[in-house]
Amino acid sequence: MIYITFLLSVQEADKAVEGGLFDFNATLPLMALQFLLLTVILNLLFYKPVSFILDERDEYIKNSLTTASSSLLKANELIKKHEKELATSRRQAQEIIKKSQQEAQQMVSIKVKEAQQEAEKLIAEAYEQLNIQKEKALRTLEMQVDTLSEKIKIKLLQS
């Protein structure tokens, strides 16, 4: 019995030596095949769809950035165009205002000149009428002086 137990213990020792850390039997190629099969399955079921989705997302982001940058460029061009138009409009408005002020100034000058001429005309007419009245007054005074002097002369001669 000792022999059997010894034989069993030797067989167990052989098994222990065989089942070591690096045991190269049929399980190693099977594990390699299993790893390769799992890699192919994962590649087909997971990595390719995920990478396809990521590629689509990258393409969408690139397109969005391109569209946004072109829109920004267009917006900047429109802003510059409108700023130029606004500057032109402001210049034109200032020119119109300046022209209107000049026209108004000319109209005021003309009206002032007309008023001065009218005033001078009125003054000249008033002066002329005063001269006419003065002449009439002098004539009547002369006549009165003549009549008075005749009366004085007659009275002096009579006395």
Automatic annotation (TrEMBL):
Functional note: F(1)F(0) ATP synthase produces ATP from ADP in the presence of a proton or sodium gradient. F-type ATPases consist of two structural domains, F(1) containing the extramembraneous catalytic core and F(0) containing the membrane proton channel, linked together by a central stalk and a peripheral stalk. During catalysis, ATP synthesis in the catalytic domain of F(1) is coupled via a rotary mechanism of the central stalk subunits to proton translocation. Component of the F(0) channel, it forms part of the peripheral stalk, linking F(1) to F(0). The b'-subunit is a diverged and duplicated form of b found in plants and photosynthetic bacteria.
Gene Ontology cellular component list: plasma membrane; proton-transporting ATP synthase complex
Spans traversing the lipid bilayer: 28-47
SUPFAM superfamilies: F1F0 ATP synthase subunit B, membrane domain (SSF81573)
UniProt keyword Transmembrane present: yes
Lipid bilayer topology: Single-pass membrane protein
Coiled-coil boundaries: 72-151
Quaternary context: F-type ATPases have 2 components, F(1) - the catalytic core - and F(0) - the membrane proton channel. F(1) has five subunits: alpha(3), beta(3), gamma(1), delta(1), epsilon(1). F(0) has four main subunits: a(1), b(1), b'(1) and c(10-14). The alpha and beta chains form an alternating ring which encloses part of the gamma chain. F(1) is attached to F(0) by a central stalk formed by the gamma and epsilon chains, while a peripheral stalk is formed by the delta, b and b' chains.
Pfam families assigned to the protein according to its UniProt record, in alphabetical order: ATP-synt_B
Family: Belongs to the ATPase B chain family.
GO molecular function: proton-transporting ATP synthase activity, rotational mechanism; proton-transporting ATPase activity, rotational mechanism
Protein name: ATP synthase CFO B' chain subunit II
Domain of life of the native organism: Eukaryota
Predominant cellular place of this UniProt entry's protein: membrane
Organism: Gelidium kathyanniae
PANTHER family attached to this UniProt entry: ATP SYNTHASE SUBUNIT B', CHLOROPLASTIC
Organism taxonomic ancestry: Eukaryota, Rhodophyta, Florideophyceae, Rhodymeniophycidae, Gelidiales
Keywords attached to this entry: ATP synthesis, Cell membrane, CF(0), Coiled coil, Hydrogen ion transport, Ion transport, Membrane, Plastid, Transmembrane, Transmembrane helix, Transport
Intracellular or extracellular location(s): Cell membrane; Membrane
